## 1
Amino acid sequence: MKLLTICLSSVLLFTYQNAAAQPNQIDQKALKQEAISLIKKFGGQLKPELKKALKSKGPVHAVEVCAKKAPEIARKINASSSNWHIKRVSLKNRNPNAKPDAWERKVLTMFDQKRLNGESAKKMAYSEVVDGKFRFMKAQATEAVCLTCHSKNIAPNIQKAIHQYYPNDKATGYSLGEIRGAFSLEYNPQGTLPNVRIIKKIPNFMKLNNRALSPVSP
Ligand code: HEC
């Protein structure tokens, strides 16, 4: 009898573990695809803007375009998805908001190490479930076009323009192929509450009731 119980419970445990692992794996695969398509959306809007600005009015104007457009594009993408949050981060950040948190720092350090071991930055990505949230990072390599504003030798007029917007800029000194930074995405299965403006108007004494509001799927 004892043996039967042990056998039965191990079968049950095995089935349970399998059932628990399966959806997670499928979800992660789908989420990775979603993350990649959001990155393409971000890069697909920013890079042409940058190139157009460089070509039409030169790098000083392009600094301005980058400073305004990059945060704006991120904001728009984030506003259109209640579950996803996308941003760019770097160990040597230019924008103060691009400072990595502990997890992002770990991943960026790992990317740098991989590159030192000879791996190309182009296909480097990493994902993990952290505190119930799916997190994904994709490295951004330093390409030739990036050197104008992120290398060791930045023209003085461009340097001046960068300092005007970012007095604490650390994002210089990069060479071709180095990891400039990464896209960092977070998927929160709970989503955000649908209309923040309405919620702000709720008087303080009712605030606890916010917990009762469940997120509406997009
Ligand atoms: C015309 C100048 C210019 C060029 C060229 C340029 N950048 Fe930047 N980069 C900026 C500015 C300005 C910011 C800050 C924008 C912001 O607020 O997000 C920035 C921010 C970033 C960030 C966000 C992290 C941080 O340090 O704030 C990454 C990642 C980045 N650039 C990567 C690149 C890559 C990769 C290329 C080449 C494909 C490139 N940049 C080309 C000016 C430039």
## 2
Amino acid sequence: MLETLTGQKKKDYLDRIIANLMALDWLEPTDIPLGGFNASLDVADHFVVGAPLDETASFRSGCGDAPLEIRKMASNLEPVDIYTWSDIADVFVHDFGDIIFENREDLFRKIETLMNTYTSKTPLMLGGEHTVTAAVANRFKNHLFIMLDAHADLRDSYNGNHWSHACVARRLVEKVGGEHLFQIGLRGITKEEKQFATENGIRQYFSFIWRKHIIEYAVNEIKDLLPSFEGLYLTVDMDVFDPAFVPGVGNPEPLGLTPREIFQILDLLPRYDGMDIVELNPQFDPTGASQSVAARLAMFLLCHNDFNQR
Ligand SMILES: [Mn+2]
């Protein structure tokens, strides 16, 4: 079979073999794929994968349930995205299910394997705690990281842990450099973190800036910067949303942005070459409101990318 194939067909065939091997190995398939139906890997433009790391919660754990709860909620939302009028069913998404792992190092290796194997497909990773974003640093080291977060996450260590979710931006900057990090929506930060950001050329937009300005200034600055990078990587910590809208997070922080403000920012930017949604903690929102924002965000991002082709 293999000898008769060339080019893209051969690559797709090999992709499928690898996927099958890996699926047996350490991927737990889902029966509620994000977007409603599971496009086969060879035609998918995007892949979804759950990375339910829930190890270093500094306040309250539970974000390991997020991938499942996001998929469940997504299956109960209407399929049409009102920003693009795309139907999620028309977007080719392959949902790998969740990664089974032993510890953080093991999870990181597996995330890197997926990212490096399927470079022609755009990943959407569902956390898990924010630490997982550091696992994509090598794959996207030439990209600009748009980080939506209430917290700067720039500590060198937290509670004695170098790999705490409170340190993820620091780990990222060590790999990609401060000029590759663009933070939006911050309001939880230490003076040391602010100093580190200034010294390392990290761009920071705080949540209290009048809403019109945060949207226009941040978006315009990103567009100006974009030609110097290979593209955009987007990481959304669900605590960037005001806790009135998204109480289901590990570390709620008031004075946040509204879902409409966040979606507006994301809508004004071009396509994202890689994405993650992290830190949703469904245990702290029995109403499901937080899960619905996360699920709509996931569907919106897939439709946005499909609409804004490369
Ligand atoms: Mn974070």
## 3
Amino acid sequence: MRGDVVEPTDTASPDYYHRVVDCQWACPAHTNVPGYIRLIAQGRDTEAYLLNRESNVFPGILGRTCDRPCEPACRRTRVDGEPVAICRLKRVAADLADDVRASLAPLPLSTNGKRVALIGAGPASLTVANDLAPLGYELTLFERYDRAGGLMRTNIPSFRLPEEVLDDETDVILERGVDARFDTPVTSLRALRETGYDAVFVGVGAPRGKELELPGRHDAPDNVHVGIDWLESVAFGHVDTIGERVLIIGVGNTAMDCCRTARRLGGRDIKVMARRPRDYFKASPWELEDAEEEGVEIVVNHAPTRFVVEGGRLTAMEFEVLEWDEGARHSRVLETLTVPCDDVILAIGQENAFPWIERDLGLEFDEWGMPVVDTTTFGSTLPDVFFGGDAAWGPKNIIWAVAHGHQAAISIDLFLRGLPLADRPTPGSTLVSQKMGSAASTATCRPTSPRACASSATPASTSAPCSVSPSRPTAPRPNSARGCARRPSTPTRRSSSRRPCPRPVG
Ligand SMILES: Cc1cc2nc3c(=O)[nH]c(=O)nc-3n(C[C@H](O)[C@H](O)[C@H](O)COP(=O)(O)OP(=O)(O)OC[C@H]3O[C@@H](n4cnc5c(N)ncnc54)[C@H](O)[C@@H]3O)c2cc1C
Ligand code: SF4
């Protein structure tokens, strides 16, 4: 609106068409939801998978774990009272699809001579690798642990995300010429840049769990756990038991994973303690539902005040019982009570930490210790260093990390071709979709740089468009490695022999 004049609709802008498909616009990666659901309805599961993968990269993982910002936008809610099961349909396509390796954007026959370092092997860095590999970049991935996946591996429990699904979708990317250096934490950005990389992507996530500094916090260290560290220890097989009475402090999705994991490790009486009323919980409704179905009790309006430790042993936790006004802005204390427990798990959030980035490099940090990152280009104040995922603006979720990864990859490609970072492609297109076109239809790809396009054997120097018909995989994959929807997923625990043994870089 300009004054009282409504500006004409600009149908020339691709944004117009994206915005009218509410669910597609609501998905941070702009997944073509109607398109892939139509393909599933036609029994074309592999094509549905490929169409998904163009934008969200991990359909099998996200079909099980996505926070689903698309579903509240679904228009069927206005008719049926609830949305189409967009997320779960993604899982169906993933479980029934054939192996897609042969259908991915082809890799060039030679590299383009530019070296890119990716720090961290979570969904953000993996997306950057996925998008840059077909353009011929030499990609080196540094990961402090022994395998790829980031929090998807170390924190999302395997009863929600089976290891084989994670392995399958991360391997597909790593197999595309990525030099993955596991057990190799980066300890100095200066030293890494001095080794001659042309660009660096920082996808290290938000690795620190928030503390709750109340009286008694450090008096029984064996029984008070920081949620994300505790889940990581469970994933690595270092922890396999917990006391019978467990309190989880916090009520976000980490709390839900903690309580359901505690249930599987022997917890009998598990309470999730929330400060505020249920309408203000951060956890997704389906996570709460799953936890309650497993017998976890959700206790509202309880604010923790003290850990009760007797004779060096944690015996209880003290809470103030609160009454909130409308809008839950102000509360008053009704009473104080103690809740007996054997273990407490703190699940009140995550923080970023960049101890390995020297503060005299010219990379600016804000007053909260976060890097200054451009919201469009994902560039930092150093022209060759880009951020994405939880490392950019704090903890979000997988699909946001993927969306960031696509944008950062576009910026890295522009930067390394000496083009302005502001020259963005239309929303929803990625470097891979520009190269591949739609996975579900014959499409045109235009090599965006003077590089070889292996699909058409176009000479490296030409910029002429080439036509790519994505090949249809024909050999069905027996018992898909992605884990079948009908197969019960059993918790898989990693043996302690896989304990990370990091070799620092820098
Ligand atoms: C308990 C829990 C449950 C969650 N459940 C969901 C869910 O169901 N759905 C959802 O969408 N999101 C979920 N999330 C959030 C989601 O996992 C993250 O938002 C997402 O993984 C962020 O991706 P990322 O690539 O930015 O970072 P991460 O996944 O955190 O990956 C960062 C990687 O960098 C590595 N690294 C860190 N520092 C260095 C270094 N100096 N050198 C080398 N490597 C380094 C780390 O080891 C890690 O592998 C959950 C988070 C938690 C904590
Ligand atoms: S990736 Fe997540 S937000 Fe995007 S369409 Fe799929 S379920 Fe929805």
